[in-house]
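Researcher: Can you fold this with 3-hydroxybutanoyl-coenzyme A in place?
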Amino acid sequence: MGSTRTVAVLGAGTMGHGIAEVLAIHGIQVNVRDIERRFLDNAKQKIEWSLKKLQEKNQINENAERIMSRLSFELDMQKAVRDCDLIIEAVPEDINVKKDIFRQLDLYTKSSAILATNTSSLPIGEISSAVKDPSRVVGIHFFNPPVMMKLVEVIRSTSTSDKVVRDAISLAKEISKVPILVQKDVPGFIVNRLLVRMMVTARLLVEKRMATVEEVDSVLKYGAKLPMGAFELADYIGLDVITFVEKAMSQRGFHVPLGTLIEDKVREGKLGVKTGSGFYTYTKEQPKPVIPLELSSKINSALILAPSVNEAAWLLSNSVASKDDIEVGVKLGLGFPEGLLHMADEWGIDVIISSLKSLYKATGEAWLEPQQLLLSMVSEGRLGRKSKKGFFEY
Ligand code: 3HC
């Protein structure tokens, strides 16, 4: 889509403002639209802060003011979208809100415009049922924070046209992202399915008193060398967002027990970093949680990540993703130091299965049942690095 020069971003929240910033950095004119002036003002401030940081580190080629001049902040939907070639919707994960937006887009956009959604969890096909021509609707899913995470998932519904998919991929490349094409419109696509399994397991371990919040995070951060622990990341994403995402996925057949740990926090208004407290407390002096290094060997990191490996096996068996997509997805979307399947090969596929079995024993959760692919790998002696063959050959 080399000619894309005006894009509208709908929703100026965490994802919307970050997406708008990335587009503007890459020379694209952006109309950011939200329903209240204060949301737009907040987004503007955050983009200014972020551009200043990037400028200090010479990570942008132009000065911040020039990039800011490409952004306009609008309350009027029609004005924001009418001249655009591409619209990226990034409003809350509520199917009714999204469908309402897409009904408006049907009325106000050029018929040639691509209508993209940054949904994390809702099927593209469901959202596109709100427009007359669903062939122009596509998923373009960014990761938080959009300026720093290189991955973009491009998702096609059964109606999305090939040209629209190609244009979405070109746009992702134009803004220096690495796109992976999600082959099937399944809830949570690729990366969020893997992430949610890890997050739910982390919560179950704490709820069943098998570990503490700090122990889980220490194991993941210092043991598995992930950039953030599961609870630290949950606070960063927002516990309200996680609740929306997991409920939407659960309602569509991807079983995830939300559990009391997160529900209690949300009820108390403790939504994570943005409210100053979630699983951890955040202050100006202490903007990041302190996760003790000495807890990092309390449990095996394979225990927390085995359900994600099991989910990866499901994605492979159902032709939703290739091995490469899974590896690129977790590295560039979640900042993993290496691919999940390579990590599984290091731990051993037999260890993954025994971890799933012990989690099942402790929780009784049916979704922990090992995928046939993993069972076959073990019965064929493909145990990972130790047998020189697992998901990969060594
Ligand atoms: N813009 C500009 N600068 C930023 C920034 C932003 N948005 N965010 C952070 N920075 C700056 C910081 O201020 C800091 O500056 P300083 O050095 O001057 O203090 C610098 O970047 C480094 O920040 P950190 O020390 O926090 O950097 P890290 O090395 O820890 O990297 C991170 C931060 C990239 C967020 C890293 O922790 C990470 O990769 N975390 C995992 C994130 C992740 O998993 N995201 C995906 C979530 S799932 C999702 O989004 C899907 C959705 O559908 C739910």
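Model: Folded with 3-hydroxybutanoyl-coenzyme A in place. Residues 6 and 29 are 5 Å apart (CA to CA).
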